[in-house]
Amino acid sequence: MSEPLLETRSFDYVPEEERHGNVRSQVQLWFMINAQILTIYTGAVGVATGLSLGWALVAILTGSLVGTLFQAFHGAQGPVMGLPQMIQSRVQFGSRGVLLPILAATLSPFGFAVFLIQTASYAVSDVTGIGSFTLLQVIIAAVAGLIAIVGFRLVMKVEKFASWLTLLNFALLSIAVVTVLPIDTLFQQGGFSTHAFFLQFGVSAIYQLAIAPLVSDYTRYLPAKTSGAKVSASVFFGTTLSAVWLEGIGAFVTAAFPDLDTIAAVRQLGDSFGYGLGAFTMVVAALSCLITISITAYSGTLALISGLEAFRPLRPTLRLRTVSISIGMILALACSLAMSQDTLNTFGAYLAILGYVLIPWTAVNLTDYYLVRRGRYSITDIMRPDGGMYGAWGGIGIASYAIGFVAMIPFFSSAIYTGPLAASMHGVDVSFIVGLLVSSIVYAILARRVDLATEMQKVREAALNTFGHA
Q1: Most buried by CB count within 10 Å: which residue of 46, 78, 234, 283?
Q2: Are 209 and 67 in contact (CB under 8 A)?
Q3: Helix and strand totals (H; E) in the chain
Q4: Closest Cα to residue 386, out of 398, 394, 377?
């Protein structure tokens, strides 16, 4: 009997009998997460600020590897917990205290949706000649929202279809890079700047880390017996491959066409290659953006309603998901319509802010899962609005997040604010390293106050728990 296409679950636990999928399907999903033009924007940052192409590629590779490492560790939590990513953080922050990181996590998917709506509209306009960006953005937001409302299975089906087109498209663009562009000349342009290098390193790392709040939303559908190492590997290699590949193309086209917008530069590369590659790229770009908007809308609403549920009991129904996704897409559309068309600079500033608010959360969550409780949780208590044994307010998690965030402030370096220590280092932003270390160490120290022996006994007695899966 085939599974129904329309998903009925929301932020609740996925029982074992409803689990499906395999690691290979996860590789395709996470490859597609980054397989769109917004990723190319990320790779343009370093070259656009004067960094040489060679150093930009090094920064892209190392930044992507570092960011994906943390993202992939979150992926292994899904099959074990059977819960969306952010509701798992009730353990560290409490059922109500988790609203703090949830608000930060909601900024990630819906922020990406804003840029994706705008990028997809440019791509469609480029191919069709439709001049009304407003109309295009409304249509794209509506279709993406509908896919997200139908749910996980439709997202996976659409993504599988698009993944092969996307793979073909970017393979052809890569051939165009090496056959059309003057590679030797491009590598001789620009130079090395510590500020520009860390800027590219940082945006590449944060671009990957920004996916962390939604990873378990999709890996939770895998059977609980699925190897955690294999799940993490599927997330790691899927997103790293597409990120490094496309960001590399972004660096090349920015170096080759410095006076063009990134989308126009990609179109120019395709047109220079011939065979209609420019137009084909815009069509595939619009489709891939549409899929990613659906994924981000799905995860953003899951995170938000799981936080609100602790303040007011909510039944995780299809109706709730429909209403919340619709509201979210309307807000994302409004922001897209109001946003400046200087996408590259606006996107760079957005990634900086995103890193500042997400890094302390990922440090606390991963430290608890891998070092403190080691994946052993009571799902029964996590799902209780009052937090059960974990409580409504997790002082240890909140304090660790706050201390880590405050420690980062002097190291901030963005268009909005530059901290004194970052200024003394000529604008080099190392706040992400500080945030990860401080929040992790503080949480590990404070967590010693938890009576783990008593807690683990309660976990074993819970109707739903992760013993045997962690």
Answers
A1: 46
A2: yes
A3: 21, 0
A4: 394
Instruction: Pick left, alpha or beta for residue 374 (phi over 0 → left; psi -120 to 50 → alpha; otherwise beta).
Output: left
Of 351, 40, 39, 332, residue with least CA distance to 209: 351
DSSP structure string for 140-187 = HHHHHHHHHHH-HHHHHHHHHHHHHHHHHHHHHHHHHHHHHS-HHHHH
Sequence-ordered list of residues with C-beta below 8 angstroms from that of 89, at least 6 positions apart, any chain: 98, 101, 102, 361, 364, 365, 397
DSSP H helices, 257-276, are 262-273
Whole-prediction pTM: 0.83
Three-state DSSP at 28 gives: helix
What amino acid occupies position 39? Answer: T
CA distance 63 to 251: 14
Amino acid at 404: G
Collapsing DSSP to helix, strand or coil, 69 comes out as: helix
Tokens of residue 381, six digits? 């208590």
Digit-by-digit pLDDT tens for the chain (470 residues) are: 455 555 555 556 777 777 777 788 788 878 877 887 888 989 999 999 999 999 999 999 999 999 998 889 998 898 988 888 888 899 999 999 988 888 887 877 788 888 889 888 888 888 888 878 889 999 999 988 888 887 666 766 776 677 778 888 989 999 999 999 999 999 999 899 988 999 899 999 988 988 888 788 778 888 888 888 899 999 899 999 999 999 999 999 999 999 888 888 999 999 999 989 999 999 888 888 888 888 788 777 777 777 777 777 777 677 887 888 888 889 889 988 887 666 666 777 788 888 899 999 999 999 999 999 999 999 999 988 888 999 999 999 999 999 999 999 999 988 778 899 999 988 888 898 999 999 999 999 999 999 999 999 999 999 999 986 65
Residues 382 and 86: beta-carbon distance below 8 Å: no
If we measure between CA atoms, which residue out of 324, 290, 317 comes closest to residue 106?
A: 324
- For the chain, the farthest-separated pair of C-alpha atoms sits apart, in whole angstroms, at 68
User: HSE (CB half, 13 Å, CA atoms) of 189?
Assistant: 20
How far apart are alpha carbons 22 and 29 in whole angstroms?
A: 11
The SS3 assignment for 440 reads helix
Spatial distance between the Cα atoms of 31 and 238, rounded to a whole number of angstroms = 4
CA angle 236, 373, 310 (to 5 degrees): 90
The CA-CA-CA angle for residues 363, 203, 61, to 5°, reads 95
Token pair belonging to 227 = 């190897």
Q: What letter would DSSP give residue 413? A: B
- Which residues lie below 8 Å from residue 128, measured CB to CB, with a gap of 6+? none
